[in-house]
Design brief:
The chain is mainly alpha-helical and about 70 residues long. The protein is about 80% helix and about 0% strand. The protein has 3 helices and no strands. The radius of gyration is 15 Å and the shape is elongated. It starts with a helix and ends with a helix. The model has no long low-confidence stretch (mean pLDDT about 80).
Length: about 70
């Protein structure tokens, strides 16, 4: 029904937002590596998730992102 479609749209938006956040963190690490001319500083998904984990409330951020990535 309409309620199920609304829930599916909300879950889809959460998933897209989580992916966007991860790609933004990865992009920021690439920019930082380019700025400092240190290619080893650029990380991938693992480095992005570690960066998010180091944030205040990082555990909650990781739960939210992982739930979104699982969508």
């Amino acid at each position: 029904g309409a309620g199920a479609m609304r829930l599916i749209r909300i879950i889809g938006r959460i998933g897209l937002a989580a992916r966007g956040l991860i790609f933004a963190v990865i992009g920021a690490s690439f920019l930082a590596a380019a700025w400092h001319v240190d290619a080893s500083a650029a990380g991938g998904m693992r480095a992005a998730l570690q960066t998010l984990a180091a944030m205040p409330l990082g555990d909650w951020v990781l739960v939210s992102v992982s739930a979104g990535l699982g969508v």
